[in-house]
Amino acid sequence: MSLPSVSIVICNFNYAHFIAEAIESALNQRLPVKEIIVVDDGSTDASVEVARRYEGRIQLITQPNGGQLAAYNTGFEHVTSEVVIF
What is the CB neighbour count within 10 angstroms for residue 71? Predict the structure, then answer.
C-alpha cells in the first residue's frame, strides 16, 4: 500500500521569531512531504525575510492581511496533495 502525498501549510502573521522553527519542523518530517506552503498574511516584521531563506524548499505566498482563515484558504488553494496538514 502506498502512502498518500502530503502537503503542509504554514500560516504566518508577525511570527518572525518562530517561522524558521515551524519550517524546519515541516522539512524534517519522517514521512515524505510533497510540498510545504508558507502563507504570510501581511506581516510587518521580518517573517518574509526569514521564510525566504528556505527558497527552493518551500513555496512562499505573501498576501495583504486578511486574517487567519483567509491565509488558510489561500494555502489550501495551492495544495496539490491528497492530504493537507495545517
Answer: 24
Cell numbers given for 51:
521564510
Separation between Cα atoms, residue 75 and residue 3, nearest integer Å: 22
50, 19 in Cβ contact below 8 A?
Answer: yes
At residue 53, what is the residue type? Answer: R
**What is the helix (H) or strand (E) element at residue 21, kind and residue range?**
helix 16-27
Cell numbers 511570527 correspond to what residue? 15
Alpha-carbon span 24 to 72, nearest angstrom? 19
Chain segment 46-79, per-residue pLDDT in tens = 999 999 999 999 999 999 999 999 999 999 999 9
